[in-house]
Amino acid sequence: MAIAIDFGTSNTVITRWNSATQQPETLSLPGLSLKIAENPPLIPSLLYVEDASLGKVVVGQQVRDRGLDLKTDPRFFRNFKRGIGADIQGFIPELDGQILTFEQVGEWFLTQLIEQLNADNPDSSQSLILTVPVDSFEAYRNWLGKVCQGLAVQQVQMLDEPTAAALGYGMADKQLLLVIDFGGGTLDLSLVRLDSTAAKKPLGFILKWGNKQLGEKSAQKPKTARVLAKAGQNLGGSDIDNWLVDYFADTQGLARSPLTTRLAERLKIQLSSQDKASEVYFNDETFESYELELDRDRFNSILKEHEFFENLDESMTQLLQQARRQGIEVGDIDAVLLVGGTVQIPAVKTWVQQYFEESKIRCEKPFEAIAQGALQLSQGVELQDFLYHSYGIRYWDRRNNRHSWHSLIKAGQAYPMNQPVELVLGASVENQPSIELIMGELGSESGGTEVYFEGDRLVTRRPFTGEIPVQPLNDREGARTIAQLTPPGFPGSDRIKLFFRVDAQRFLRITVEDLLTNQTLLEDRAVVQLS
Q1: Which of 73, 162, 299, 422 has the greatest CB tally within 10 Å of its CB?
Q2: Percent of the chain at pLDDT exceeding 90
Q3: Other Cβ atoms closer than 10 A to 491
């Protein structure tokens, strides 16, 4: 039996392929899942550490049911998905003599889900598909590759979230898609171009087959959705819940607590399908009860008071500007796919319709589209070899008096490469004894991710600076020099020709020819293994 898990920042969805009906179905795990109104069963992405030394944790809805979701308790974790693969581990608390990481918290969470899944569904250990954010694909793949070795699952596969959403909405035949992922913690807008073969056969990446781990030591790489533009901010359903709690605190003196926050969330969910909502709150300390009522007009006013729509416009404007720099206009986008709980708010749907034709917008599977789309991998998987990142060399920019980067190999380049990339260089100083090159992994112009604490909340932000983030690959002593020059080089003329290629194991290989002496200084030398 095939199982797919969409591990989300706020909620996690588990689906399985029903071989009898030939349809996907969403699973409910007793104690872990939550079912509210018309929504499918969701597992809150929450974790409480009872004993870090023993790996004893509580996950999902049972964290709330046991009243363990206190913001001030260092043993309580939420939104931890954002920290996986990020270099922000310093402020996680030390518990029971153990120094924790977000990766460890995420591993505990997934392991607990799989263990209960196997206990409730003995046949579920055959095949598992996991979805991952497309912009952190490498970090997630490396982390999942390690985690899956400890999972009681025979086969583990992986698929990027935008491609999964397209498959879940039946839009894999479209090429240019805007995925609006608006969950509990973040708003993420991703303009992606799907691989043209996805409509015929889903593309994925095998992390584990039996006892053998694949991926990191394998030449196989997945062809994923290519991100053309991306924007987002730390804004989501939890912010709206807090605004509603503040509103009732100001108007009715309601206490701020995890319970009142959950009541506010229920009001918000009710207003997604009806004009008025109500909940009753009983204060067991003062023995007072409160009737919490809210209509959709007042709800929209609260959103406006917090500049909710201005923030949405800011992110959309940023994304469309990035798209236009690549010659892509609004009318060129084939479909707009809405995922995440916050997209169910009618005012959010209306906001999206201000930018796109209603016929292009899909919103009927906000929670299940990604997990259900990933399940299609169980019907056939194809592996492709390509480079996810771009790579280049560092040079001195005389005009701006600083180092900059020249791109050599573009993201999406198939490997092994049939034709090498050529580059001719000259000496930069008198009597130059050697040639040094620093290779770098180039990010996207949309910028990296800043992660920090704002009060008791973990905040992520993707600033747009116009600069390309770069991770140097060989900037260390002994690794920069690629060839000695005999005789020494002098500025003013071309001196060496370089040939760059990527082999089947993703190693960047360099051949260096001395144009002055007609000698080959390096021949097909492996420099660094690429992602």
Answers
A1: 162
A2: 36
A3: 11
What is the spatial distance between Cα 278 and Cα 293, in angstroms, rounded to a whole number?
Answer: 4
pTM of the model: 0.67
280 neighbors 289 (Cβ within 8 angstroms):
yes
Digit-coded pLDDT (tens) for 133-192: 766 656 777 788 788 877 777 778 888 788 888 888 888 778 899 999 998 878 888 888
Of 10, 510, 506, 495, the residue nearest 236 (C-alpha):
10
Question: How many whole angstroms from its chain centre is CA 235?
Answer: 16
Full DSSP string of 58-74: EETHHHHHTT---TT-T
Helix/strand/coil for 137: helix
Could you give the percent of the chain with pLDDT greater than 70?
82
Q: Are 449 and 461 in contact (CB under 8 A)?
A: yes
Tokens 């929209």, located at residue: 300
Segment of 18-32, 279-293, 337-351, 416-430 carrying the highest mean pLDDT: 337-351
DSSP 151-174: SS-SEEEEEEHHHHHHHHTT-TT-
Instruction: Report the C-alpha gap between 307 and 50 in whole angstroms.
Output: 39
Q: How far apart are CA 500 and CA 495, in angstroms?
A: 17
Q: What is the pLDDT of residue 499?
A: 92
List the one residue out of 440, 385, 434 whose CA is nearest residue 408.
440
